[in-house]
Amino acid sequence: MKYGHFDDQTREYVITRPDTPMPWINYIGCENYFGILSATAGGYSYYKDARLRRLTRGRYNNVPMDFGGRYIYVRDNASGAFFSPSWMPVRGKLDAYECRHGMGYSIISGKKDGIAASTRYFVPVGENLEIWDVTVTNERAAAADLSLFSVAEFCLWDAQDDATNFQRNFSTGEVEVVDEVIYHKTEYRERRNHFAFFASSEKLAGFDTQREAFLGPWRGWDDPKAVAEGKSSASIAHGWQPIASNHVKLSLKPGESRRIVFFLGYHENPKDQKFDPPGSQTVNKAGVLPTIAKFRDPKNVDAAFAALKVFWDGLLAKCQVSTPDIHTDRMVNVWNAYQCMATFNMSRSASTFESGIGRGLGFRDSNQDLLGFVHMVPERARQRILDLAATQFASGGAYHQYQPMTKKGNNDIGGGFNDDPHWLIIGVSQYLKETGDFSILDEAVPFDTTPGTEVPLYDHLKRSIQYALDNIGPHGLPLIGQADWNDCLNLNCFSDEPGQSFQCLKGKDGKRAESVFIGGLMVHSAKELSALAREHGRPADEEFYAGVARDMEEVVKKHGWDGEWFLRAYDDFGHKVGSKECDEGKIFIEPQGYCVIAGIGLGDGRARQALDSVKKYLATPHGIVLQQPAYSRYRIELGEISSYPPGYKENAGIFCHNNPWVIIGETILGNGDQAHDYYSRICPSAREEISDLHKNEPYVFSQMIAGRDAPTHGEAKNSWLTGTAAWTYYAATQWILGIRPEYRGLRVAPVIPKTWDGFTATRIYRGVTYDITVKRAGQGNRIALTVDGKTIDGSVVPPPPAGVKSVKVEAVLS
Ligand code: BGC
Ligand code: NOJ
């Protein structure tokens, strides 16, 4: 069953009924001002940091789940009846409903009793504000006398404090209303110099800023007193819960439409300009008045919307493909690329499943996210890399997360996740292959964001490997530390407190538990660093890191091979994890996919055997599960992984993030059919028909799909913010379609299904547009390339002579 459909032409997903199985959200904002926006106008906004600078309030785990948002009420003043065009929060029956989620905007429309209202929500490029552009149409035969109410509820900035510290916060709220603009200035009088503002393009009939006054005692958002009575009360919030609500009156002739623009923004004054006049407690508005004047004019709103389209068209144009598979096309061309920008912007902080107060930007996550967006925003990728590297310790270890507002590492989680440092090498390598910007390696970057400790970025990469070399266990494999990619494999955690996995080294010296997965990852990262050193003119380093990779490869083969697949780990007692000797958790997905990516066992049949074992033991119609058999009981020596009921999350759920590792592995082994088959199993568009089972948005990947041991096998959770976005995008574009940036050119080496007769692609790479046509002449993966009419050897298209801006590539597969 479906709840909507893709509109591939407009790059929108069209939701046609509001009661989707989960909130189906979109994101607005792509730079500093962000919002979550559901198909029923739910969600909240923030500036830069979902925890520290939250503008509007989100309600967590609510009933219904998606509550609190950017709500509009339309009231018929003759009858007193009212509705919300976004269905929520009034609900009730609408005569028509539609939500179009597009690139950085959503248009939510509803109709009732001959009155239609449609709101286009978006954040203009370059602005710290969001627009609610409402058009109301009277489709009746008679004139209509209407009232429009808008409402947003402010969060008192620090979302964590806002959700807990009521004894204080019920007394701090402050607003100011000047020239029909509502200014939210809670905490402005202290150290802060920022405020929010809410304004409208129309003359107001009234406003409210105190929640209780707008809603009325004991009433909810579905039936606010102001709306029911058709009258705002000009309330001024003192403490309690400040809101911004505008009341606009409209008299519409039959067939007449009117447009009303509301906008909510954030402003920061320079530190010394706190109050105006000095000494008073009034917000200094000078800096924001021109912006308010600008967006009160709908012409400027239209221009901003047009600019947003241009912005997204430009980003997506970097890679466009046309294949025989509609799902591949729409994911690669639109939605997967779009999701990669969301993971870049949000990391894992704010979504339906992430509260925005829990996590900042993750070190491993953000480095891996680079794989999916570096070609779209290379300059921003550059900055992200430098920010991440600055949270590395001098040992080469790294903070596991940092806050985007302060860019400082999070002390409450600390470091010691021993896979973390390797991802920096992988992220930086990808950046260099895409951009060729080797100057980044010379940038001076501190350790632990401490001034005076700067070394070139290149040295940070070397420390990453040094950290691994300094943390080797009894079998010669890397020590796992707090955990590796699998946050829940806590082999040093003998605590009785589930959920305490991040503190789990307590009482343990961490000197025995080893990770075969990190072994594979290290082979990959050391090979990457060796190649990077070669390109950077460091032959001694090139050789050294090649040696590191070779040595670790031998260790993995010797102590990390179980006979039919790669082992997962050794625990603190030296017991194998992920072995046929285990009663449960005999085979894990991570080392199979990743060791093949690292090139381990390609020549001796182990790679093929490992992936065959994946197919035999782990693959399901809904994707590949993380391990089998699932742990049926809690095992203190393995940690959080066994705390989940079988089939969920790391305990044998389909953890989509590592499915692309196997997909890439299959392409490395030349098996395009299997690679694309696995891709399709987790691909949201390909799962659209089973939306009632899948539940999450059919336009973005989810982190997890319940595994075969779960009663809800096939049900997805944790959509949007997942490493799945970058890895599936990377797997599809660079390995299945095979269009792969390398240091010395663009490789074109597709490994596509046998049934495909070819495909075309346009890829903008280092400022040159490559028009690529791939044709199948035989069933294999052998490639013959013609570049601008000339046959070349191999599959790497070298950079064209200076000044040439477009290149035609023809590839024949046989
Ligand atoms: C989840 C992991 C996640 C970790 C970090 C765990 O509870 O199962 O998937 O990586 O929390 O927050
Ligand atoms: C989600 C986390 O964000 C990621 O860092 C981790 O690798 C996976 N869960 C697996 O535990």
Task: List strands and helices in order, with pairings.
Blueprint: E1 4-7, E2 12-15, E3 25-28, E4 33-38, E5 45-47, E6 54-56, E7 71-76, E8 82-83, E9 96-102, E10 105-112, E11 115-122, E12 129-138, E13 144-157, H1 159-162, H2 166-169, E14 175-178, E15 181-184, E16 194-200, E17 206-210, H3 211-215, H4 225-229, E18 242-252, E19 257-268, H5 289-295, H6 298-316, E20 319-322, H7 326-346, E21 361-362, H8 363-373, H9 378-389, E22 401-402, H10 420-435, E23 444-445, E24 455-456, H11 457-469, E25 514-515, H12 516-535, H13 539-559, E26 569-570, E27 576-577, E28 587-588, H14 590-597, H15 606-618, E29 619-620, E30 623-624, E31 627-628, E32 654-655, H16 659-668, H17 672-682, H18 691-694, E33 702-705, E34 716-719, H19 723-736, E35 739-742, E36 745-748, E37 758-765, E38 768-776, E39 783-787, E40 790-792, E41 796-797, E42 806-813
Parallel strand pairs: 38-42
Antiparallel strand pairs: 1-2, 2-9, 3-4, 4-5, 6-13, 7-8, 7-13, 9-10, 10-11, 11-12, 12-19, 13-18, 14-15, 15-16, 16-19, 17-18, 20-37, 21-22, 23-24, 25-26, 26-27, 28-31, 29-30, 32-33, 33-34, 35-36, 36-41, 37-38, 39-40, 39-42
The structure holds beta-D-glucopyranose and 1-deoxynojirimycin.
1-deoxynojirimycin (NOJ) binds near residues 365, 485, 487 and 650.
